[in-house]
Amino acid sequence: MADFLHAMEIAAAGLTAQRARMETISSNLANAETTRTAAGGPYVRQRVVLEAAPQPASFEDLLRASEADERPAVVVRAITPDPRPPRLVYDPGHPDANPDGLVAMPNVNPLEEMTDMMTAMRTYEANVKAVQATKHMAHAALEIGK
User: 81: helix, coil or strand?
Assistant: First the structure.
């Protein structure tokens, strides 16, 4: 039964990580035209940094590991700002335009964000299917015992 629970924990960690990615991407898209923030300057695109957590090397190691030592397979390490500079757009009538008529726009590329969103959604769906498959296997194992 520990194997089923461990598989569920791994899939749940994947679901959590992908949800964080989708929320961050949504925020990036929502702020793609924000030229002035509370910190000053345009919105800066955010990125989710995922990190693989150590896992037991073998099935025997998994059986020996205590529940306190078990960790999910992936964790959100940080949400960091994208280091790319803002886009400069010529719009002399914009209230945030500099003396040359250039406006610093967020470094958000909607095409890149939508591609990342599709990847996050598909990965999320794969983790949902892993949970469903694990649940089905556990149910099938219980049926064998009847």
Answer: strand
Neighbours of 137 (CB within 10 A): 13
Our count of domains for the chain comes to 1
pTM: 0.80
Percent of the chain's residues with pLDDT above 70: 86
Residue 119's CB is within 10 A of a number of other CB atoms, namely 13
For residue 61, tell me if it sits in a domain. Answer: yes
pLDDT computed for residue 35 by the predictor: 94
109 inside domain: no
Kindly tell me if the per-residue pLDDT of 107 is higher than 90: yes
Q: What domain range includes position 42?
A: 2-83+119-144
Residue 53 lies in a domain: yes
Which residue type occupies 68?
A: A
Question: Residue 12 CA to chain centroid, in angstroms?
Answer: 13
